[in-house]
Every structure is written in C-alpha cells, then in structure tokens.
Design a protein that fits this description.
This protein has 155 residues and is of the alpha+beta class. The chain contains four helices and five strands. The N and C termini lie far apart (34 Å).
C-alpha cells in the first residue's frame, strides 16, 4: 500500500468518526475508489441552519495528494458569493499555490464550513451576491434561506 493511499485511508477513517459524532453527516464513499466521495456539512448559523438539512459536498482527491489539493464541489447549489452556479467553491487553503501537504481533509471541510457561514465578499465568485450581502444582509439571508430550503439534503 502506498503512503498516499494509507494516509487517505486514515483520513477517511477520521471523517467517518466525525460523522459518527455528528460533526459531519452522510459520508458516501465507494471503498473501491476512496479518491472520490460525498459528505454533508451541517451549519448552525443563518441562513443555512435548518435542523433537517445540510449541504452536500463532492470531494475529489488527485493521485498526487497530499502534494496537490483536493477539489470540492457543492452538490447543493446554495445562494452564496463564494460558490458559483456549478457548485465550485473558492476556498483559499486549497488553491494550488497555497496548499500545503500537511493539511488534512478534515481541516479543508472545517474551513469550507467556516467560509459558508462567513462569506469572503472581497474575493467572490459571484460579485452580485457579494454586493447583495454587503448592502442588504437581511435580503441576502432571506434569499439564501429560501434557496437552501429547496436544495439542502436531509440529515
């Protein structure tokens, strides 16, 4: 077994443990290909704090991991300035020029959860939503909540 696959198996086991503790939900993984999986993030803050819904994320691990970052795509297409219409997310810690091999998947997912509840409006993928967020947060939250009620996955 290569060091990469051993590390990845260890990190997957840690994610399973975090799901058992309720920090994440519904880890969907095919044990024949652990380089691609889905996991659900649950947020405790508005506008994504529905107790019955979460945000499903697809994680893809490159063969060069941990020397190249994982890619993330939100399958739940939320109303968010840092998530584009395809679900791609701008998360600085996994940008190729900033990614460090010591970073673990759990840290990436925690950072993603943090970005979801605290948008980076200075570096948006959807400038119109960043503007809405900065000018009228109540309007943004109302629309984000409405969209989330439609696209969130049951937890």
């Amino acid at each position: 077994m290569s060091k990469v696959s051993k590390r990845l198996q260890t990190e997957i086991a840690q994610l399973r443990g975090l799901c058992d503790k309720g920090e994440f939900h519904h880890l969907e993984i095919d044990d024949t290909n652990i380089c691609q999986f889905k996991i659900t993030i649950k947020c405790e803050q508005e506008p994504y704090n529905n107790p019955n819904l979460g945000i499903q994320v697809e994680v893809k691990i490159p063969a060069e991991y941990p020397f190249k970052p994982p890619t993330l795509r939100l399958l739940s297409k939320i109303h968010h300035p840092n998530v584009d219409e395809k679900g791609q997310v701008c998360l600085p810690m996994i940008m190729p020029e900033k990614f460090k091999p010591a970073v673990k998947l759990q840290q990436v997912l925690v950072q993603l959860k943090e970005l979801i509840v605290h948008p980076e409006i200075d570096h948006p993928m959807r400038p119109e939503l960043a503007e809405e967020y900065s000018k009228d947060k109540n309007k943004f939250n109302k629309e984000a909540k409405k969209v989330f009620e439609k696209v969130g996955v049951p937890v």
